[in-house]
Amino acid sequence: MPSDRRHKRYRFRRLPSLSILAVLCGSASAQEMLPTIDVRSDAAQTADVTPDYKVNRVELGPLGKKPLIDTPFSVNTVSEALAENQQLQSVREAFRFIPSVQGENVRPQTRGLQASVVQNTRIDGLNIAATTDYPIEEFQRIDVLNGIAGALFGPAQPGGTFNYIMKRPTADPLQRFTGGYLSTGQWLAHMDLGGFADPERRLGYRLNLLDQDGASYVGNSRLQRQLASFGGDIHFSPDTVLETNASIYHYKTEGLPGTFAVAKGVLFPAAVDPTRVGYGQPWGGDDNTTTILSGRIKHDFNENWSFSAGVSRNTSDRASTVPTNTLINNAGGYVTTAATTTYSLDTVTSNQAILNGRFETGALKHDLFLANNGFSWDRYRPFTIGALTAGSASLDNPLTFPEPNFPDFKDRYRSVNTLQQSITLGDTIALNDQWSVLGAISDSWIDTNNYNTSGGVTGGYNANGWSPLGSVMFKPRENMTTYFTYANSLQQGDSAPAGTANQGDTLAPYRSNQYELGAKFDFGRFNLNAALYRIERPYAFTGSDNVFSVKGTQINRGIELMASGAISDEWTVHGGMTFIDPRLYNTGSPQTDGQRILGLSQFVTNCLLEYHVPTVQGLTFSGNVTYATNRPTDYANISFVSGYAVLDLGMRYAQLVADKRVTFRLDVFNVTDLHYWANVTPAAQNGYNATGSATGTLGAPRTVRASLQVNCEDPIYRSRLRKRRRSGDDCRLTGLSRGSRGADSAPAGLRGRKHARSPHCDCRRLYQGDGPEI
């Protein structure tokens, strides 16, 4: 059994009361009267992403909330509705629906460029540690800005900006209960509550509770997830609101397949059966607890000027005992080890303040921002570190081994501290109705110190620099934007991985450059976005001298295409493709110079199609295909792993039962039970090791997920909604009257469309289970 020293962690109580609350929700909610419903406020809340996954607006840090079509960047979104309909359980699973993102068992990254632990990942715009997984159940959506954005957010790797948007209190009562089952033997219970706690609607709340436990897909394996997440809004006045968040998430796995690596001169093998006992160890896995505390004040001075300021505290406490199976010969023999060099605790304290204003100077219209953001990041490492050898086996005959003597992961010291702060300034200037320009720049300071076990400083650096950005946008017509963007960003240096002569040292900052040409189309119910880019950055790796340092240049060229929305009343699509040519130059070695970057497919596509059966109200079928071409497993491009095509199929059926909306969902993932390498990465995900080889993660086998969801909104509110539906009042989402033609105030593309046939109409989709949640 696992050592108690590794598992002295906060534990959630089981949540059997979820099912009881689901039964009682109708009677409980019927006892309180609701104030008059503000139709406009709810429409504003649900319009950012439509029920058909079309993105209307995104949040881009100091730029604020912007229409997607008016942004000179490649931005992709996975919405709450998509995650719920596909029964996703983590942010990493959501990344599958964005072809430009690599996020399976690695820190999230875009365009084939490694992201940093903290600089590239945020919750509500505030930095967090990306070392552990996050539950999708506490987020309203995931926004991903591909490429470089240092002028907006401060120094960061060119691997994109990931912003997880927390669920906010709902304008109308929300009482949603979900019970789920996985074919491996896991049960899940999830409760999502929202609304206002007072008649004056000043105190909003959103509460998410999750409990999942049971066997996973390998014999003797297990998966546990528990979440408690609360979001509260305090409306001091119509112009001022305080947004708060508090959450704790526990994630534990045991017995799942470990990672695979190869010794020097050994070729990477074909993917093996992930369900076979012995590729993982009963004692090996992750035991992580992640907490978030945050607050943000927002104030509108008037319709043109606003201010917001926020702080957050994020902790990522983990005990990682995932085994690594290193192949030592081409016959499949391997040695199983478990490293204890992983940082066991990351703490991030983040801050942000933004002033936004709109004004005119003559014929020019300005959209100005001035912002300050940064973080303090501490990393803690166990006093006892090293690699523990568990035993030897082979791919044909995998074995389980006794548990090694792991250290107490909580017996640790602060190894690294990083302080980063940036002042950013930018302005979007509309020259006329068709042409506009965006200019932004940040001035940043980075201070890093490395410490030994006694607390003495062993190294570090202090640096500062500028990160500029410039864009030109042209709108040949209202629903189309073309743009060109240049960005240059300072970035924190990489850290030397374990086993190198300078392990733990952080390299001095360096710079990346990006050129991007793009076009965006908004067809009302459907988005189409395309981008062409070139990114260049210094590349650090471990050479023959066993010193980790900058020894080359990475240049990635690529094309992205993304589409989302309703292509007809019956069909919905969310998908895209990316072609990327990632190369390494200036290595000083003819074997690696000009070769493809390790682990990246040159072509990746993901396409989700949904069919809403017109003859059976509430019935929807879905199919999702992910395809990726082969990937090199070394920098000389001698060895490759095969590409893969994974098919997922699903259905959902929603109807009103006893005045409650009940939705049944059934999904089969990896229908063909394909054995494949889900991810191939450089060793330590930081440059590559002296052998120039990779580590690999197996894809999950065929699994089935089924769930039953009950929405217990207040029956008085539902009665009012029905009355509006019968009386012909305006639709809550589109602003269209029943059976009437769209007014000028309706969203672009819905004008002139009959209300009753619009799949965006909440009054119609409410009864199908596909509409925006109440």
UniProtKB/TrEMBL annotation:
Domain (TonB-dependent receptor-like beta-barrel): residue spans on this chain: 245-671
Stated family: Belongs to the TonB-dependent receptor family.
Annotated segments matching region Disordered: 728-758
Cellular component, GO, one term: cell outer membrane
Key words of the record: Cell outer membrane, Membrane, Receptor, Signal, TonB box, Transmembrane, Transmembrane beta strand, Transport
Record's bilayer topology term: Multi-pass membrane protein
Source species, domain of life: Bacteria
Predominant localisation class: membrane
SUPFAM superfamilies, alphabetized: Porins (SSF56935)
Domain TonB-dependent receptor plug: 68-161
Lineage: Bacteria, Pseudomonadati, Pseudomonadota, Alphaproteobacteria, Hyphomicrobiales
Compartments in which it is found: Cell outer membrane
Species, as recorded: Nitrobacter hamburgensis (strain DSM 10229 / NCIMB 13809 / X14)
Protein name: TonB-dependent siderophore receptor
Signal sequence annotation: 1-30
The keyword Transport appears for this protein: yes
GO biological process terms on file: siderophore transport
InterPro entries documented for this protein: Beta-barrel_TonB, Beta-barrel_TonB_sf, Plug_dom, Plug_dom_sf, TonB-dep_rcpt-like, TonB_sidphr_rcpt
GO terms for MF: siderophore uptake transmembrane transporter activity; signaling receptor activity
Pfam families: Plug, TonB_dep_Rec_b-barrel
